[in-house]
Amino acid sequence: MKISMDYVNDNTFKVQNQSNNELLIDMCDLDKKNHLSPMELLLSAVTSCAAVEIVSMIKKRKRDFKNILAKTNGTRVDTSPRYFSSIDIKYFIYSDDLTNNEAERYISLSLEKYCSVGSTINDKTTINHSFEIIR
After folding, report:
1. Is 93 exposed, middle or buried (0-12, 13-18, 19+ CB in 10 A)?
2. Is the peptide bond before 81 cis (omega within 30 degrees of 0)?
3. What DSSP character marks residue 37?
4. Residue 80: is it exposed, middle or buried by C-beta count within 10 angstroms (0-12/13-18/19+)?
5. Can the peptide bond before residue 38 be classed as cis, meaning omega within 30 degrees of 0?
6. pTM recorded for the entire structure
7. Which structural domains are found in the chain, ordered by start?
8. Which of 16, 25, 36, 90 holds its CA 20 to 30 A away from the CA of 134?
9. What does DSSP assign to residue 93?
């Protein structure tokens, strides 16, 4: 896996993957922000990486699946390098027959075992999760 990066301006960079998909990243103040920051991308990556696995497990067990949404909050330490001390993810799973026990198991397995992004995050960061099943 390879990524190339190009300078756009002092706070903005363009990245491109091997398939030539491009993404702009900025570290601008909120009033000038046009793109996701690297830390926002990390939250997005862990949330969506686990979601892929959650959906796969639901479907493999032939449970009803309509949609999955998530809200993620990252808490950063106050001193440099300002890494995440904790990441809290709440999944909203739309299903008519998924049980709470199944949802808990699938989410836990996804974040702790199958999600490569979650596995890449080191021991300094606690990843917490919750969920709601919407019928």
Report:
1. buried
2. yes
3. -
4. exposed
5. no
6. 0.94
7. 3-32 (no CATH), 38-134 (3.30.300.20)
8. 36
9. E
